[in-house]
Amino acid sequence: MSYTKEICKAKLEVHGKTYELPVYEGTEGEQAIDIRNLRAQTGLITYDPGFANTGSCISNITFIDGEKGILRHRGYDIVDLAENCTFLDVSYLLVHGFLPNRDERANFSELMNQHSMLHEDMRRFYNLFPDHAHPMAMLSAMVVSLSTFYPELETNPNEAIDITVTRLLSKLRTIAAFTYKKMRGEPIVYPRPDFSYCENFLNMMFQTPVNKYVPDPVITRALNQLLVLHADHEQNCSSAVVKSVGSSEANLYASISAGVSALWGARHGGANQQVIEMLEMIHNEGKHDIQAVIERAKDKNDSFRLMGFGHRVYKTYDPRARVAKEICRQVLDHLGKKDELLGIAQELEEAALADPYFQQRNLYPNVDFYTGLTYRAIGIPTNMFTVMFAIGRLPGWIAQWLEMRSGSEYKIYRPRQIYNGPTQRDVISNWDRS
Ligand code: ACO
């Protein structure tokens, strides 16, 4: 924040008057017109549906250059982080601002271990959800329920915040695994102190009374990498929701629960589930008619979109998609599995990238295009894919929430609108209404 500087003034001419607005530049050259006093000075507001041109904050966490395909957290490139750090390292980086040293890492792991259990009463909630409940609905409900079991945040916010962050990071993984067990009708598996974060998650998912789970280093590394790829993405839809809810002084659990709900949608994290469903649809039709799918995606009379393609910010290949594709290849090789859906995905990608419709609109594969294929190979069911995304995105949500709440410019989120409904009119008695 301290490096953001005013570089010049922008001039706005309206109704015969000229106004000067400061222009700021961030450390990576992003420039923004400061309109904070616009309405007070001019009586005007800006109009920007979807906030595509609106900077809602000054942030030190994540930098994206969507034209060049760059993603960095606290200055570190996403490819470097995915290659060389665990998910816990990156979580620590996002939340604390620096990578942990050996002692800090050991302490953080130990805290994760201590806070990995759920209050036993929370287990009973699972019995009340119907069998067909979507895991994202259960995840969101369980996260907000944490605030009823661990309410310290409300009573002693400053001291409780660190512990709340740790609790959330550790318990979300447990909640997710218990959700899977509920769907399978299998007994839950408790976390173990001798396993790493990702080993523990896989063990809680796949260990059964008749099937001992032995951690596989290649799968554990792949899971770590996939979670790292999702860890933060600056002011995306779900992070903006987390901050919007948090801006009213709602607690962190309530804010994260809202973020889970936002992530669920098909245009955001829900796309990873929809990609596999789309690939399965092509596969099950038997014809592998890739061109027909491309034509459907281009047809403006059809609401179908090529899932896992396109991005609000990236106008080139999403750097995370490249890494996800390689992880998928490595995992399938390691497991000695052949997945016909991977072949279909590659054909679809090739056809879309060669098509003028996708070229003109700068539509490239996003992170969701290849992640589901790896989850599928590991044995995670399709309807759990967005839950995996939520586990990955959690440290980003927390870091963004903390930055907002501790910042000097912290304000309740409250956009304005251009009202376009009827002007004032009188109520006609219902006897006289035609
Ligand atoms: N398939 C076909 N056409 C598309 C696609 C797609 N996947 N994505 C965008 N377009 C088209 C739109 O129809 C629009 O065309 P037009 O200019 O002729 O009207 C143009 O490209 C721009 O699209 P917008 O929806 O205006 O772009 P926006 O930035 O608002 O949306 C989004 C980005 C939501 C990701 C969009 O590309 C999409 O729906 N993709 C498919 C869903 C998906 O993969 N979501 C995951 C995103 S990544 C993430 O959340 C982790």
Strand-helix topology:
Elements: E1 5-14, E2 17-25, E3 31-33, H1 38-42, E4 62-65, E5 70-73, E6 76-77, H2 78-84, H3 87-96, H4 102-114, H5 120-128, H6 135-149, H7 152-155, H8 157-184, H9 197-206, H10 217-230, H11 237-246, H12 252-264, H13 271-285, H14 290-298, H15 319-335, H16 340-353, H17 356-360, H18 368-378, H19 385-406
Antiparallel strand pairs: 1-2, 2-3, 4-5, 5-6
Helix pairs in contact: 2-10, 3-19, 4-8, 6-8, 6-12, 8-9, 8-19, 10-15, 10-18, 10-19, 11-12, 11-19, 12-19, 13-16, 13-18, 14-16, 15-18
Bound molecules: acetyl coenzyme *A.
Acetyl coenzyme *A (ACO) is lined by residues 50, 267-269, 271, 297, 305-312, 361, 363, 366-368.
Please give the number of β-strands: 6
Number of helices: 19
Overall geometry comes to globular
Provide the list of bound ligands, each named once: acetyl coenzyme *A
- Distance from first to last alpha carbon: 60 Å
The averaged pLDDT comes out at 94
Strand content: 5-15%
The strand order across the widest sheet is 1-2-3
Order of helices and strands: EEEHEEEHHHHHHHHHHHHHHHHHH
Helix content: 40-55%
The assigned structural class equals mainly alpha
The largest sheet is: 3 strands, antiparallel
How would you describe the oligomerization state of the chains in this entry?
single chain
Radius of gyration: 24 Å
